[in-house]
């Protein structure tokens, strides 16, 4: 049961991290689909734990809609919660969504749905009182956002005063702030000419612009705004449908995109989805799907909300577009475990607003499966709209200029003869800490949260310490002094003392963390926990043999070979024994 709780804790930490990256820093590192999978897994696990231990009476993490605000801007409280949307990338889920709705209003047959574009921008809440723009804020955590009123004032497509008739006493207008593709291209070209950092995609550019302290910079970015709905709506004139509301909002001076559909039939929704999907490249702004909402405001209120989503709406995301390009080279990277990873370099292409120029080919097996050569034409996509991958090789376009991918025989860093992994799908360098490229990655991992965790010693500082001759093996972390650290550019006196204190603190390390920190091939966090739970002490682990290892549930033959090769290496065992004398390695039984 402890291992189940640890898994729950790990999932919570992952979700908090991804909430922070997406909502607070506007720099997501996973797709919405993968994020939803994490949330679903957490809900399922907490139900199991809750049934047996009454552990989870309420889950505030999953009720959290966005992320914490940055401290740069003041708080702005929404009058009504600014909720996220439940999403899917499976078209067949449209049918299930409609069936789900029927559970709440099964006595109504002809339900109308409002379908429009899911613009890939930054959600913003605009508060108007008696027709005047009072404040503007980001989504934040769904209840409290960041006050960005000064920056919103310079966006020309957002009226400062509503025009026309029937203006409500209070209304929260909600929509997406975005940058057009053409303006985004110009923005990055300008950054390149000024030798400044470019934006990876248009959403980040829009979000980063709204968080500028200088409104003049925001004005130069040419931000746009499209309305998708409203929150609080206090008016003498009642509106009973989402479509009616948006039509009225448009009359008050807002922009609403012309591509939308009000319909009842599933086939019409799917037809709308396909139309938008195939025409998305013609739009001058990024979209990542369509949104389907119940059109009736009365029914919306009746159906209500679940956790952080309205039950009456769903986003249907598009699959990543495939883009054709040409392989121009293949390089071979050395990871911390010595594995040689082939990386395909191709003519840069723009996929959904992100410039992609390389993709991992993973191993020998994948290269054979794809039948890929240098100078081949290929189709590239972003898996989950994040990770670049090669989909297909266009064999019909292959010519005599193609060259087979030749794997190196020796390590490019230390010149050691490369060996085949136990499953023969990868090559690896066996030199461990003696290989400079591999050693760098090992040292970074050793000091990371996955290893013994020395706070303040990230990749940049570790590279500096190596270049100054202070760091070669993990033992050298514990030989560092304040004077040595202060001699490194960028590490002052205060940080030096802090790092030394953190090094001292890191000497108390769990057995599973220590095993993981060593960088043994195929031994990550979960395998390290299995090993620690079996052996209980570091000495018992070092005294093991292949037959004992291969008999442990969850380990297997290939991992057993990797472990034995690592701990039988004289240089490796010398480093481990010295670390044992320095560290307090303990085990907590599960």
UniProtKB/TrEMBL annotation:
Q: Report the leader peptide range.
A: none
Span of domain NAD-dependent DNA ligase N-terminal? 3-451
Q: Which GO terms describe its biological process?
A: DNA repair; DNA replication
Gene Ontology molecular function: any one: metal ion binding
Q: Which reaction does it catalyse?
A: NAD(+) + (deoxyribonucleotide)n-3'-hydroxyl + 5'-phospho-(deoxyribonucleotide)m = (deoxyribonucleotide)n+m + AMP + beta-nicotinamide D-nucleotide
Q: Which domain of life is it from?
A: Bacteria
Q: Which Pfam families match?
A: DNA_ligase_aden (PF01653), HHH_2 (PF12826), HHH_5 (PF14520), Nlig-Ia (PF22745), OB_DNA_ligase (PF03120)
| Residues annotated for NAD(+) binding in this entry | 32-36, 84-85, 116, 139, 176, 293, 317
Q: Which HAMAP family match?
A: DNA_ligase_A (MF_01588)
Summarize the protein's role: DNA ligase that catalyzes the formation of phosphodiester linkages between 5'-phosphoryl and 3'-hydroxyl groups in double-stranded DNA using NAD as a coenzyme and as the energy source for the reaction. It is essential for DNA replication and repair of damaged DNA.
Hey, which family's this protein in?
Belongs to the NAD-dependent DNA ligase family. LigA subfamily.
* Protein's name according to its UniProt entry: DNA ligase
Which gene codes for it?
A: ligA
């Amino acid at each position: 049961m402890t291992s189940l709780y640890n898994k729950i804790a790990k999932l919570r930490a992952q979700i908090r991290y991804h909430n922070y990256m997406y909502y607070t820093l506007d720099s997501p590192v996973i797709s919405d689909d993968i994020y939803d999978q994490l949330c679903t897994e957490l809900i399922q696990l907490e139900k199991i734990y809750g049934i047996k231990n009454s552990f989870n009476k309420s889950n505030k993490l999953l009720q959290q809609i966005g992320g914490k605000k940055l401290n740069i801007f003041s708080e702005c409280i929404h009058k009504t919660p600014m909720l996220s949307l439940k999403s899917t990338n499976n078209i067949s889920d449209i049918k299930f969504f409609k069936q789900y709705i029927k559970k709440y209003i099964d006595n109504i047959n002809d339900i109308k749905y409002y379908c429009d574009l899911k613009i890939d921008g930054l959600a913003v809440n605009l508060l108007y009182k008696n027709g005047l723009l009072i404040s503007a804020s980001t989504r934040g955590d769904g209840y409290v956002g960041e006050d960005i009123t000064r920056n919103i004032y310079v966006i020309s497509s957002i009226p400062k005063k509503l025009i026309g008739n029937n203006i409500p006493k209070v209304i929260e207008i909600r929509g997406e702030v975005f940058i057009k593709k053409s303006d985004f291209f110009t923005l990055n070209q300008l950054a390149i000419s000024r030798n400044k950092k470019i934006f990876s995609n248009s959403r980040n550019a829009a979000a980063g612009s709204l968080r500028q302290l200088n409104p003049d910079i925001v004005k130069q970015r040419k931000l746009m705004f499209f309305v998708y709905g409203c929150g609080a709506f206090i008016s003498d004139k009642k509106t009973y449908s989402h479509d009616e509301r948006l039509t009225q909002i448009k009359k008050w001076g807002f922009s609403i995109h012309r591509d939308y559909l009000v319909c009842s039939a599933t086939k019409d929704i799917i037809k709308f989805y396909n139309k938008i999907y195939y025409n998305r490249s013609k739009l001058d702004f990024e979209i990542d799907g369509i949104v389907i909402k119940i059109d009736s405001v009365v029914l919306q209120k009746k159906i209500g909300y679940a956790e952080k989503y309205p039950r009456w709406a769903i986003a249907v995301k598009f699959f990543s577009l495939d883009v054709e390009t040409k392989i121009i080279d293949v390089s071979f990277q050395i990871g911390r475990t010595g594995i040689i990873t082939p990386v395909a370099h191709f003519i840069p292409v723009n996929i959904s607003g992100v410039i992609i120029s390389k993709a991992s080919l993973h191993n020998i097996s994948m290269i054979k499966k794809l039948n890929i050569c240098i100078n081949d034409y290929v189709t590239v996509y972003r898996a989950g709209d994040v990770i670049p991958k090669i989909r297909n090789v266009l064999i019909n376009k292959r010519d005599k200029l193609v060259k087979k991918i030749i794997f190196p025989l020796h390590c490019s860093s230390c010149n050691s003869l490369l060996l085949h992994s136990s499953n023969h799908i990868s090559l690896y360098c066996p030199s461990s800490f003696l290989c400079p490229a591999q050693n760098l990655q090992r040292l970074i991992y050793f000091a990371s949260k996955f290893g013994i965790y020395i706070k303040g010693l990230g990749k940049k500082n570790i590279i500096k310490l190596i270049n100054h001759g202070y760091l070669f093996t993990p033992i050298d972390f514990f030989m560092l002094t304040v004077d040595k650290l202060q001699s490194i550019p960028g590490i002052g006196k205060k940080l030096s003392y802090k790092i030394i204190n953190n090094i001292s603190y890191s000497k108390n390390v769990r057995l599973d963390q220590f095993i993981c920190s060593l960088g043994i091939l195929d031994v990550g966090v979960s395998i390290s926990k299995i090993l620690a739970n079996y052996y209980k002490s570091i000495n018992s682990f070092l005294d093991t043999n292949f037959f004992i290892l291969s008999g442990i549930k969850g380990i297997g033959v290939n991992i057993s070979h990797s472990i034995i090769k690592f701990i039988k290496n004289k240089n490796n065992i010398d480093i481990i024994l010295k670390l044992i004398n320095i560290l307090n390695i303990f085990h907590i039984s599960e």
